[in-house]
Amino acid sequence: MESASVTARPSRARADVIREFISKYGLFAVLLLLPVAYGIQDLRDDGDLSRLATNMKDGLSNGAIWALIAVGYTLVYGIIELINFAHGDLFMLGSFVAFSLMGTVGLTTSTGGIALFFGLLLILLISMMACGALNTMIERVGYRPLRSAPKLAPLITAVGFSFILQNVGLLWLGGSHHGVPDLIESQHRLFTIVGVPFTNGDILALAVTAPLVFVLVNFINFSRIGRAMRATAQDPQAARLMGISVDTTISFTFLLGGLMAGAAGLIYALYQTDVWFFAGFTAGLIAFTAAVMGGIGNLMGAVIGGLIIGIIQQISDNRIGTEWTPAIVFAYLVLIMVFRPQGILGEQTREAG
Amino acid sequence: MTTAEHEREAALPPRGPAILETDHLTKQFGGLTAVDGVSFRVPEHSIVSIIGPNGAGKTTFFNMLTGLYKPSLGRVIFDGEDVTTKRPDQITALGVARTFQNIRLFGTMSAVENVLVGQHARMKASVFGSIIRPPRVRREEKDGREKARELLAYVGVDKRRFDDVASYLSYGDQRRVEIARALASDPKLLLLDEPTAGMNPQESERLTGFMRKLRDERELAILLIEHDMKVVMGVSEEVTVLDHGEKISEGEPAKVRSDPKVVEAYLGKQG
Amino acid sequence: MSAIAARFREVRAPGAAGGPLAGRLLATGAVLFAILLPFGFDSGSGFIEDCTVALFYVVMALGLNIVVGFAGLLDLGYVAFFAFGAYTMGWFGSGWFNSADIHIGVAEQAARLPGIHLNWLLILPLAALIAAFMGALLGFPTLRLRGDYIAIVTLAFGEIVHTTAVNSDEGVFGIGSFNLTNGRAGITPVDKIDLPLVERFTSLELRPWYWTALGLALFVLFVNVRLRDSRLGRAWVAIREDEVAAISMGVPTVRVKLLAYALGAALGGMAGTFYSSFVNTVNADQFEFSFSIFVLAMIILGGLGSIWGVVLGAIALTFINNRLIPDVLNDVPSKVGLDFDLTELGFGIFGFLLVIMMVLRPQGLIPESRHKAELAAAVEEGELATEAHA
Questions:
Q1: Residues of B with CB under 8 A from a CB of C
Q2: A252 with A262: CB under 8 angstroms?
Q3: Which of B216, B242, C98, C174 is the most buried (most CB within 10 A)?
Q4: B88 by DSSP, 3-state: which?
């Protein structure tokens, strides 16, 4: 009878094994490339890693902004497989709303602690709600009618909305960069740890982002609507048959994404003390890169991706030059797509149809 | 051949040279082993069936034969050549063609155009040839279309339907077009994945007759996945049974049908 | 089946062996009209200039049509190939590399100038090759990606090219100090086209430019039509429809996709050489993302994959953008008593048009039957899904 499969010669092509290895570790290698290279340079030049560490700290703070925006991309993509092109510009409008409200609420650089705190909290809430509402409206008008059309259609609509929102920004505050009053003295050094200065801006980024992410993750994992979102993301048909209102769930997802973008807008305005109508375009692409890097559709992935991209961006800004940073970040995007399209936390997709 | 291999050969019924052979073919998806060490051969110019309960790994096995899945272990040898790591289009060019369980025609193309795509590997027009269209390319196109129409007629599609968009053809016609498209590449081995699904007994009968015609007139070998036992028993020269990814029985139809292991796999343990 | 889906249905497939006689006559008539058009206007008129630019966009749109319309690969970075073509012209057809002294095929005056000066007819294939190579290079990472991911990767590539163009006046990526592109200031002047047997082109006489552009457009049109009804064209439709089935039928999907990218890129590059000579400059501001979307909008407006539709879309959008909005509509606000410049709304209006287009008529002006059928199938599927819920 059948003898044991003694010499079932493994026929995995060497190329396949190499490809898998590269997929798993190649991405990490590529991500570590810049920090390690500059770390070595620092040790040579300065004798310590404090410059690199500062880069990374700054990167994490910036990355918090990207993380919040990336969350919006990843939630929407996870549920309807659409790249919401207009999301970056939504963030930009969020920063505009935040900036304008600062004047309305009467916050100035001389406003004291308690008043400032509550003033900013109010602005945060309004910015979030404005962006949430806008995102929901865009979905209703531009994406829902095209839900069953080939993917090209809603993508073009998204680009159209992106242009519209950019134009709104242009008309609102003009084409040049607009300074924002440094309400929280974002560059003020609060304390220094191992040679790395932590500023007010860093604390702000952490203080706003951490709770929001925490609440969001718990919400999605434990609430009824969160369950509905996850179910719809996995299988809209089945979700519908289980009585979940897919339309409402999708609208809600856009709402959540918008809320996060609005928060990111406020942080950006305060941290960078600058707003610009075109900031959304680059921000959008950077945040999308982050979402993909972390694993599109995966919430924690978006957050982690945002932080990593922040670090890369900061190192690039500081060492190579801000003008090259977009190209570097996009080069990373291409590399991720080549080595590991499912991202860090994503699952391997099936091989054949 | 080693002693073990000699013994294995002797245990099997005598047949001609093999057009297709697999050697301990295995496919693992993460923790799940879908196909486990299946060694198997299809003799030239024969009709062989693979049967087994749902989830036995039959389509996964097919997909490894055509190169859509890369095997985790084992080899696939077609017409004497190791094709284990070849791409699907390369394997088709070598002479393997297939149909799909859920019909996968190019819905917006006509029946003729579908069959023309099937001839892609046999046509030679290059990019520049396609643009300039020298007489050779023009002839190739003309001959290709004629061949497509012949094949469609051969499988039994009414010629009024030839230029109809494929997705609007009847189910039966769609199945026929799929077979014509598979035949378009002049294959030596035809893989049919549940070809009689959705057919009534007369249609199945006609299809089995057609399969014999293919084998005899076109000197093809045919490998089927089938659930319809009448078809399997009626047309197969040999049957192989898979269950949970393993080969549990093989041989002539009558012998396999009465194999207790097979009965158990389908009906569950008796008593 | 709903009324909407019924509108899309067309049981007969698009015939392959030449269109009906009426279609042929219409096409010939259109071409004749296009050839004779400049005679009705001053040779230096703004209208001829606009028409020439429109023809440039026709070539671009037909090039992108191969990638997006035929092969179904969502390319949002097409501007990159425009850039490659334009810079090829800038490097090899101007005084840019002024330490060199190479002249091939150029007339008396230019032959004395420093720099590399090749005849446009030589630069054309050179640019096509460079762009084709870059196209394949860009296509390579996208091969195993889903549609929307292809969009993002190609967009990223386009932006990388743009950023590089803007910043490469002092080294590339911070390496070296070579001035490759002169950033936003750009390379200017660029040699005028100099065809054999014809007087040298000038910037005052626009008719020769127009006819050259027309010639290029007709050539690209010819290439498109031939490819569509060929073995390669069918392969593209096949992989667009069902890649797994296509590869199982023997279509070498990798090669076929790379060919789409390369061919589309080559045409874009060729158009780029013409344009840079026409406007006498190559600078980084010409290569923004909005260009890619502009060209994409043309082929969507015209009807994805439909060759004549794409031509129509390109002409229409060029005139809307260059004429309708600035010249005609600009008066409207003041006439109604409002005080703002309509061109400030250009972007927004364009975005609005995109949204309206996709929501109301995604199949475009002259729909291509296959895409129509795809849309119909998708709409039906969507309707069945919502029916199941109701």
A1: 66, 68, 87-90, 92-93, 97-98, 100, 104-110, 113, 116-118, 120-123, 125, 127, 130-133, 137, 140-141, 163-165, 167-168, 181-182, 184-185
A2: no
A3: B242
A4: helix
* Residue found by looking up tokens 């250009």 in the block: C346
A191: number of Cβ within 10 Å: 9
A/C interface, count of CB pairs below 8 Å: 163
Q: What ranges do the domains of chain C cover? A: 46-290
Neighbours of B145 (CB within 10 A): 18
User: Amino acid letter at C378?
Assistant: A
CA A140 distance to own-chain centroid: 23
Cα distances (Å, whole numbers) of residue A329 to A264, A304, C156, C200, C387: 19, 15, 9, 45, 44
Using DSSP's 3-state secondary structure scheme, residue B242 falls into strand
Q: Would you say C119 and C201 are in contact if contact means Cβ atoms under 8 Å apart?
A: no
Beta pairing, strands B47-51 & B238-243: parallel
Instruction: Domain A4-339: give its CATH code.
Output: 1.10.3470
Whether the model pTM is above 0.95: no
- H or E, element range at B37: strand B32-43
Cross-chain Cβ contact A164/C385 below 8 Å: no
DSSP label of B42: E
The closest CB to that of B106, out of C9, C242, C377, belongs to C242
| 3-state secondary structure string across chain C | CCHHHHHHCCCECCCCCCCCHHHHHHHHHHHHHHHHHHHHCCCCCHHHHHHHHHHHHHHHHHHHHHHHHHCCCCCCCCHHHHHHHHHHHHHHEECCCCCCEEEECCCHHHHCCCEEEECHHHHHHHHHHHHHHHHHHHHHHHCCCCHHHHHHHHHHHHHHHHHHHHHCCCCECCECCCCCCCCCCCECCECCCCCCCCCCCCCCCCHHHHHHHHHHHHHHHHHHHHHHCCHHHHHHHHHHHCHHHHHHCCCCHHHHHHHHHHHHHHHHHHHHHHHHHHCCCECHHHHCHHHHHHHHHHHHHHCCCCHHHHHHHHHHHHHHHHHHHHHHCCHHHHHCCCCCCHHHHHHHHHHHHHHHHHHHCCCCCCCCHHHHHHHHHHHHHHHHHHHHHC
Instruction: Please give the average pLDDT of every successive group of 10 residues along chain C, which has 390 residues.
Output: 42 46 82 84 82 95 95 93 93 78 68 78 93 93 84 91 85 67 80 78 84 93 93 94 93 95 96 92 90 90 86 90 71 65 74 85 74 65 54
Q: Closest Cα to residue A89, out of A118, A131, A117?
A: A131
Q: Where are the domains of chain A?
A: 4-339
Residues C238, B165: C-beta atoms closer than 8 Å? no
Tokens of A79: 């549920």
Distance from CA of C65 to the nearest CA of B (A): 16
Q: Nearest 5°: phi and psi at A343?
A: 80, -175
Q: Give the whole-angstrom CA distance, residue B222 versus residue B49.
A: 8
Look at C373 and B89 and tell me if their CB atoms are within 8 Å. Answer: no
Please give the Cα distance from B32 to B125 (Å, whole number): 44
What interface predicted TM-score (ipTM) does this complex get?
A: 0.89
Judge whether C214 and C36 are in contact, CB under 8 Å: no
Residue B195: strand, helix, or coil: coil
Contact C359 A159 (CB under 8 A): no
pLDDT at A121 over 80: yes
Tell me which of C249, C379, C381 to substitute to probe the interface with B (most B C-beta atoms closer than 10 Å): C249
Lowest-confidence range among A138-142, A311-315, B15-19, C366-370? C366-370
- Check CB contact under 8 Å for A334 and C297: no
Q: Which two tokens stand for residue A289?
A: 């890169």
How far is Cα C70 from Cα B76, in angstroms, rounded to an integer?
Answer: 35
Residues of B within 8 A of C257 (CB-CB) are: none
The tokens describing C67, both together, are 């990638």
